[in-house]
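User: Please fill in residues for this 257-position structure.
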C-alpha cells in the first residue's frame, strides 16, 4: 500500500513539474512586451484609454466565462469554488475566513464597477467600456478562448486552463501595470483610483495556491486526463498572448501612423 502511495506521489510530482515547465517557459509568462513598456509610465492619455477599454471588455466578459465554469463544474465542491469567484466578481465581499458565504453584497464592490470608476477618471463613460462592440479582434479572440477552454465542458481541460491562467496572473503582470499607473498618477492624474489593480495583484498568489491544491485533488480523481489538462493550459496561455500582443501591435501601429 505504501509503495502504491509513493508511486502516486511521484507521478503527481512528475506531472506538476511538467505543468510548471509549460507555464514558466511560455512566451507570455517569460516576457510581455506591452506590460514591460507600460510599466515605464509613459503611456499617453490616448494609449491609456485604449488599454483601459480593451481590458474592460476582457474583465467584463470574464464573468460570462466564470458562469460557464460554474455550469460545467464536475461536482458540488468545484461548483461552489467557481461560484465563489463569480459572486466576488459581482460584488459579494469576502469574509475574514476568505469566503463569500454569508458575505454582504455591495454594488460598488463589483470588480467591473471598480474598473468603471477608474475609466471615469480618464474621461470614459460607462457605455464606452466593457462591451464586445468596443473590442479589437485580438481582445475578442481572447474572450472567446476563455469560453472555450476556461469554461470547457471537459473538466480536465477547464482545470488546466484555470491553473495556467492563475499562475500567469501571479507571475507579475499586475505589478508591471501598477508600476506604470503609479507613475502616471503621480505625473498627470493625481485622482486616479488604483484599487482594482492593486487588489487583483494582492489576491493572485492566493488564487494560484488554490489551483495547486485543486490539481493535487484532481490528479487522484477517476477520469482525470493529463493530456487534456495540458491542452487547456497551453491553449489559454496562447490566448492570453494574443490579447497582449494585440495591444502591443495597436500601440506600435499608432506610433507608425
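Assistant: Residues filled in for all 257 positions:
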Amino acid at each position: 500500500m505504501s509503495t502504491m502511495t509513493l508511486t502516486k506521489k511521484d507521478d503527481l510530482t512528475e506531472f506538476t513539474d511538467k505543468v510548471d515547465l509549460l507555464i514558466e517557459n511560455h512566451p507570455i509568462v517569460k516576457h510581455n512586451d506591452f506590460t514591460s513598456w507600460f510599466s515605464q509610465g509613459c503611456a499617453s492619455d490616448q494609449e491609456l484609454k485604449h488599454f483601459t477599454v480593451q481590458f474592460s471588455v476582457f474583465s467584463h466578459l470574464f464573468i460570462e466565462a466564470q458562469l460557464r465554469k460554474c455550469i460545467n463544474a464536475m461536482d458540488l465542491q468545484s461548483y461552489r469554488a467557481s461560484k465563489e469567484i463569480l459572486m466576488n466578481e459581482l460584488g459579494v465581499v469576502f469574509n475574514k475566513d476568505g469566503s463569500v458565504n454569508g458575505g454582504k453584497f455591495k454594488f460598488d464592490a463589483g470588480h467591473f464597477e471598480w474598473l468603471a470608476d477608474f475609466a471615469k477618471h480618464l474621461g470614459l463613460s460607462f457605455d464606452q467600456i466593457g462591451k464586445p462592440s468596443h473590442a479589437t479582434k485580438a481582445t475578442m479572440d481572447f474572450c472567446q478562448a476563455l469560453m472555450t477552454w476556461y469554461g470547457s465542458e471537459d473538466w480536465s481541460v477547464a482545470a488546466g486552463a484555470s491553473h495556467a491562467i492563475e499562475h500567469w496572473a501571479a507571475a507579475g503582470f499586475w505589478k508591471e501595470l501598477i508600476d506604470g499607473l503609479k507613475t502616471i498618477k503621480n505625473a498627470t492624474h493625481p485622482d486616479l483610483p488604483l484599487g482594482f489593480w492593486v487588489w487583483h495583484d494582492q489576491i493572485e498568489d492566493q488564487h494560484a495556491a488554490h489551483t495547486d491544491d485543486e490539481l493535487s485533488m484532481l490528479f487522484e480523481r477517476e477520469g482525470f486526463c493529463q493530456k487534456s489538462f495540458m491542452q487547456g493550459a497551453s491553449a489559454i496561455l496562447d490566448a492570453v498572448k494574443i490579447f497582449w500582443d494585440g495591444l502591443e501591435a495597436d500601440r506600435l501601429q499608432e506610433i507608425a501612423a
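For context: The first helix runs from residue 2 to 25.
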